[in-house]
Hints:
Blueprint: H1 2-33, H2 41-70, H3 76-101, H4 106-115, H5 117-134, H6 138-144, H7 146-153, H8 155-170, H9 176-196
Helix pairs in contact: 1-2, 1-3, 2-3, 2-8, 2-9, 3-5, 4-5, 5-8, 6-7, 8-9
Amino acid sequence: MLARAESPIRRLIRPALWLLVIVPAIVLVAQLFLDQLGAEPIEALEHASGEWALRLLAASLAVTPLMRLTGWGWMVAQRRFLGLAAFFWAMGHLSVYIVLDQFFDWPEIVKDILKHLYITVGMLAFVLMIPLALTSTKSSIRKLGGKRWNQLHRLVYVSAVAGCVHYLWAVKKDLAEPILYAAVFVVLFALRFILRKPGPRGPRPLPPDASVTLPAA
């Protein structure tokens, strides 16, 4: 059954992922210009962009367990795509804060980062994503070597945790959503750990085209 599903999924998944990344951005921009983001449009933009960054980061972390279960090594390219998409949404989240919220007031931004712990943790989550985005190419894997590249990309776990903590501390009343996101990441971390463990006959073999680029992260 998996074999029958593989071909259409492989053909359609990248266009579907592009729509997943781009359509929410178009909708948010349209809502902003049409004044449909409520009484606090900037806060709404910050909230939505941050949530999309977390969603796409979770989606990128879900790809490796999916590859382990299905043997679809070609999904590694989609994992890189989703990781980069998460980074660009996080960059959009930060840009809304810097440009629309603070109007490039750098002394106030630095003061905010040092004063409010949730902003400090959010900045940490973003900064940790930078080396992951910069080394997301196949050439980076070859230059760093598989082992060092895997070690570097374990930073994604720290970034994900920091992102969830940032969200949790930033929310003042309803904690249900940040707790839900944290629970999703806990499940993903557990799946990745369980599926990495060798079974009674040794480690689960990887598809040939994923043997170099399938990281621990």
